[in-house]
Design brief:
397 residues; 8-stranded parallel beta sheet; 14 helices; 15 strands; globular
Length: 397
């Protein structure tokens, strides 16, 4: 299944995998049965990094996303591929942030003098009006960006002070490691991930500013992302560049064909009114046509790939259509939903009726791996995926 990923063996630096207690905790929640027994049988198995396990912004279940610390944790948990979501600063330098306009929720910028440079400063909650702010990477220079500290991605919309606004971390996450979050440029992430023995899946984020920005076009932006891998001597076979913008993917296919072969089209068809992952008539993309244009990888959220029939989780019509067209599937994001006793929220919406406990993390993962046939999965806590992959698909590591 995973041979197409062409993952070469990882160096010794990344060989010591420490999964911690969570995978075992989740397995203990499962009902007795063949899957639980199989997973339990791997309890004393030596775990290795695995290409099926992709660190989603590092390991943000507990560490501030897109920081050095978060990615080191993800690698320690066996993620063989790491993600840098890429945006740009005022002086057109590429940095790792989930969105160009998220500095107010992912860093301490509002508590610094740089708050004065934000697109929109902090506005406290007042009556029915929620607290707001908007701080963009493009509001500040790279030198200024480097002065910031990464924090857990959160904000309290009911806050009346900056301090309270910044203190909005969900109760099932933690601020224990948020006092030190070292931000990275995209080039620095390349160097770090290489040193950690991991491969690369950068995502070109949609700009919050109008493009061209100071003469910087969308094509310039897409090209600069690839150029930084080439400058670092990273082979195209180690890079899965991603974008929700199909034109970015097609740009890479046409202008950087070696990188374009593994470019990943992130599918947000769920934003279209009437979309139903079990009704091909509502699909906005012709999968056969996408593949004919050179798209080999498509990545929707987990719930689009599955449905429930007779109380069992099975592949959705979306899965069947995409695979019949020859597309490889990657999906997101496991361990991002918190406790699952209330149905799992957005990421579990098509299987909510059979989701009643954290046991579903492994149960859904099993269907995605074995029945859907995904190539890999992003996770906010890669240890869970690493455990499963080592236990159930060891030959692919």
């Amino acid at each position: 299944m995973l041979a197409a990923l062409a993952i070469s063996p990882l160096p010794a630096l990344a060989a010591d995998v420490d999964l911690g207690p969570r995978p075992y905790y989740l397995i203990n929640q499962m009902q007795d049965g063949p899957l639980k027994q199989r997973l339990q049988a791997c309890e004393n198995m030596a775990m290795k990094p695995h290409p099926f396990s992709i660190g989603h912004r590092g390991a943000p279940l507990m560490f501030p996303e897109h920081t050095v610390e978060s990615n080191r944790a993800a690698t320690r948990m066996g993620a063989a591929i790491l993600e840098c979501d890429v945006t740009f600063t005022k002086d057109l330098e590429l940095v790792c942030r989930h969105a160009q306009n998220d500095l107010h929720t992912t860093t301490n910028i509002l508590a610094t003098d740089l708050a004065a440079k934000c697109t929109a400063g902090f506005s406290p909650a007042n009556g029915d009006a929620k607290a707001t702010a908007e701080c963009r990477a493009s509001d500040i220079t790279l030198a200024e960006f480097r002065t910031l500290n990464g924090k857990m991605d959160a904000a309290d919309a009911a806050a009346t002070t900056v301090e309270a606004y910044m203190d909005g971390t969900a109760g099932w996450r933690t601020d224990l490691y948020a006092t030190k979050g070292t931000l990275m440029t995209h080039a620095e992430s390349i160097a770090l991930f290489r040193d950690l023995g991991a491969k690369f899946t950068p995502e070109l984020k949609s700009p919050s500013v109008e493009m061209p920005f100071n003469g910087f076009t969308q094509a310039d932006y897409a090209q600069k992302l690839i150029d930084e891998y080439k400058a670092a001597g990273i082979p195209a076979s180690d890079v899965w560049a991603q974008s929700f913008n199909l034109n970015d993917v097609l740009y890479w296919i046409e202008n950087e064909p070696e990188f374009g072969q593994q470019a990943v089209f992130l599918d947000d068809s769920y934003n279209i009114d009437g979309f139903d992952s079990n009704d091909p008539e509502t699909f906005p993309h012709d999968f056969v046509e996408l593949h004919a244009k050179g798209v080999n990888y498509i990545a929707p959220p987990m719930w689009m790939l599955v449905t429930v029939e007779n109380g069992e989780i099975v592949p959705s019509a979306y899965t069947k259509e995409a695979k019949n067209a020859g597309l490889k599937l990657i999906t997101w994001t496991l361990e991002r939903s918190g406790p699952l006793e209330n149905g799992g929220g957005w990421y579990f919406q098509t299987v909510k009726d059979v989701t009643g406990s954290d046991a579903m993390y492994f149960e859904l993962l099993h269907v995605l791996a074995q029945d859907v046939g995904i190539e890999g999965i992003f996770s906010d806590w890669p240890a869970t995926v690493t455990y499963y992959a080592n236990c159930m698909m060891p030959d692919a590591s």
